[in-house]
Amino acid sequence: MSITGGDVVDLGRGLYAWLPPKRGWGLANCGLLVSPRSALWIDTPYDPLLAGQFLVESQKRLPDGAGIDRVIVTHANGDHFWGAGVLPDAEIIVTREAREHIHYDPTPQQQHALVTGSDQSTPLGAYLSRHFGAFDWSATDVVRPTTYFTGELELTLGEYAVQVSSLPPAHTGGDLIVHLPAQRAVFSGDVIFSSTPQQPGDHPVHWAGPLSNVIDACERVLATGAEVIVPGHGPVLDPAGVREHMGYLAYVRERAHALHAAGVPATEAARRVIAEDRYPSLGLPERLVVTIGSEYRHLDGSELPGVLQAMAEVAAVAQEPGTERTGGQA
Ligand SMILES: [Zn+2]
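Above: the input record for the complex with zinc ion. Below: its predicted structure, written as tokens.
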């Protein structure tokens, strides 16, 4: 089974958002900005098949002779940049801090082996197969960024300004946001996971934190004055939608701090917040294990666990009856 489809939304003045066909792990939004002579992507889909589909949709919107020369990567999770192999000559732009996260995550081929080769009788094996088994990285090489920057990066594409800002650790270490002033738009990457009543999304998963930095990043998105916000996952938002998401983040932060103060261990704290079921329309509530674990690390000064250890805990909590009852999985 593979995933196909996706919507291209015209945001005006040469800007498009590609939204994948459903929610779930690894299905991220991407951007296309087109000028008369060239174009750029903001993020790529997760695997070559989906990236090829986005490329076909992009090419339909390019003037004759124009190519996609640059990819701005909002952060170093594979679901935002492993598709870059379909643009072998493009410049790939990341923050300097993102380099470290590239080494934290498995390579595409390691991940493919894990997903296809893991023991289905274990919670982790079953979880990886269920949530990642539709992707194919068997022939995906490691993507090597070509341009690293710190702080702010000002680009132009034709007549359009492209303002890229790196962020303190939030979703990962090395996140960035892309502000397109002429289009009054921001691509926020995974500092925002959106949800609307019409299009419910998933619980965010934050690997770095603290959540106060994620909330500050949302403030920074709002401070641009943008009217259109394309999150890393979920439907396109207006500023009010960003404010609403900040309410979610403040709630999780408050619960994590209260449970930590009460001496409740991190995974148990995640179970309790899942059981509160404050956001019943959101899928993948087990991701609170990672997000609350990240918040606890800032309170305890403890080390980031390996990604497989983190995912094994996520998978174990996902199969507990209280979690399965909660949230939806599209
Ligand atoms: Zn993502």
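Notes for the reader.
The first strand starts at residue 7 and ends at 12.
Residues 179 and 236 are 15 Å apart (CA to CA).
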